[in-house]
Amino acid sequence: MINPRMAAAALAVALFFAAATDYVPAFIDADGKVFGLFRLDVYKDALHVASGVWAAASAVLSRRSAKAFLTIFGTLYFADGVLGVFTGAGYLDLSIITQGVSDAPPGIKILTSVPHLALGAFGMVCGWLSDDQSRKGALA
Predict the structure, then answer these.
(1) In the chain, domain spans
(2) pTM of the prediction?
(3) Residue 85 to residue 117: CA distance in whole angstroms
């Protein structure tokens, strides 16, 4: 079974890394795009940091907290990624409202959505498959 606290800690690291990529020149191309795909800004970085703090706090607090984080975070991020595949914009950063549907090619929409799809899927799967010690104790 999956340890939800370890999974939440792994997501915290990934989210802090996502926030940091905007400030590491090796990840930014000549057009100012991270990995040549998307632009991050202070607002998006703040969302990644806030999500990372939420992940880290849930990992430290308890298994139950980590499991709840994984399920909620995973669902939110995965749904944001799905919206991004079809529109090139997301709802977590409000870009679907502030910028509308992107005219980017479908391949770019998919590639820019992969991080949220992957993080979201990881969170949902880990949340659903994580062992629940309290239930095990009640059944034993």
Answers:
(1) 4-131
(2) 0.85
(3) 9
